[in-house]
């Protein structure tokens, strides 16, 4: 079955050329007729205008015209009256043939005298009739339906509604044939022609046409059922029921309470018809493919509470494999991220949509306000935010047991969230010179300005003092020493530095926004080592300053002055 598309295209092109030429001739004829008619119209109007201009008054012209028409009308009435009288008398005296001759003679002479008027009428009527004819031809041709007639081995197999139907039939034919190594491709070349469709019963679809072609070939055929998965022909089997039974058992494993739908990911078509005997395969061969597993990439969206170990366990793959597919999963995994899972899944993957009810947290809002009770650069939480709780009803779609999508149907809040309220300080801090410090003066003041916002102890086990200052204010080494620790944490002390001094005492500088030294570096007393910030577990910009001697936390107020 080859070459059909070229033949049909050529015939359509020739037919199109013919219709184009016909349309051009009709339009040219209409153009000439309309042109002559328009010339007549223009000439008539010119003569009328000239005639009217010759008259002194339009009223007089109209009166004369009406009078002339009345005279002509009376003249015609008189002619018809005497014609009738004379024809009747002739028929009575000399018979009908003589009467007919008299009627023809007089009417002919009258028409000859009126020939100028008749020509004028013809010149007006002929263009109109021509235009009506032209549009009728075009409308009739455009409403005709043409199809592709298929003939094979001297047999008319029917008519296709469009050339694309033939291409589809050729594809269906080749899909019904399974080629093995060494077999020659089956080539069938039916005769095609474009014809006018006169009987809707002649139209056949692709499947019917293929059956008719195969019946009229010399190859061995048999009734069978073709198995198509996503358009791929796996083969024709003798028992359709055996394949349907296996497919049904696969789907039945996923049916359960709350399941709304179960369907294969791939499109399955079981098409009964005539197939070449060479295309018949054993049921087991097709069923083995249907029941097999394939390795494929599956994508999973990270949910709250997920960990790499949990995801690997859920997917049934080693943690090392999960890390190989997602190198940054241990450091950068966040809720909503897409994780790649390379899993062995069934060749016939199944999508299951199940209605699920679960509880989910409702995030709280945060509002801020200014307060002159809180120092500038600090903030205070007045009301702690608390997440609410909602009952969610959703359609969860899983593929082979792994969730691939979730559609929320309904969400009902059962516990309202508590809005977090934070006060931002506007109070101007007291200058450092106003703070009384009774220390020994062994260590210099470690901040360029600032004030003490919290003392050691203060009822919460505070291990040092807090010195509040604007963000970015310089922090100095309290004494000469060696940097022994420079660390950045997302919690606790945040960015912090420890310096060991010559007597073994350690000073600790925490919650910095930036650090300017590194481990092993020797720093001088008063040398900038960091900048004020609020990293780690901190509220407001400040330096948490500690003094540690022989592993014991000392009150910094006894050392600075």
Structure explained in plain terms:
The protein has 561 residues and is α+β, with helices and mostly antiparallel strands. Helix content is 35%, strand content 33%. The chain is built from 11 helices and 25 strands. It has helices at 4-54, 58-94, 96-113, 115-142, 163-175, 206-215, 240-252, 283-290, 308-315, 319-325, 329-332; strands at 146-152, 155-160, 191-196, 221-229, 232-237, 259-264, 268-276, 293-301, 338-346, 350-362, 366-375, 379-383, 388-399, 402-415, 420-427, 451-454, 465-468, 474-476, 481-488, 495-501, 506-515, 522-523, 528-532, 542-549, 552-554. Strands 16, 17, 18, 19, 20, 21, 22, 23, 24 and 25 form a 10-stranded antiparallel beta sheet that branches. A 4-stranded antiparallel beta sheet has the order 6-10-13-14, covered by helices on one side. β20 and β21 form a beta hairpin. It starts with a helix and ends in a 7-residue tail after the last strand. The model is unreliable at 430-439 (pLDDT under 50).
SSE topology:
Elements: H1 4-54, H2 58-94, H3 96-113, H4 115-142, E1 146-152, E2 155-160, H5 163-175, E3 191-196, H6 206-215, E4 221-229, E5 232-237, H7 240-252, E6 259-264, E7 268-276, H8 283-290, E8 293-301, H9 308-315, H10 319-325, H11 329-332, E9 338-346, E10 350-362, E11 366-375, E12 379-383, E13 388-399, E14 402-415, E15 420-427, E16 451-454, E17 465-468, E18 474-476, E19 481-488, E20 495-501, E21 506-515, E22 522-523, E23 528-532, E24 542-549, E25 552-554
Parallel strand pairs: 11-15
Antiparallel strand pairs: 1-2, 1-3, 4-5, 4-7, 6-10, 8-9, 10-13, 12-15, 13-14, 16-17, 17-24, 18-23, 19-20, 19-22, 20-21, 21-23, 21-24, 24-25
Helix pairs in contact: 1-4, 2-3, 5-6, 7-8, 9-10
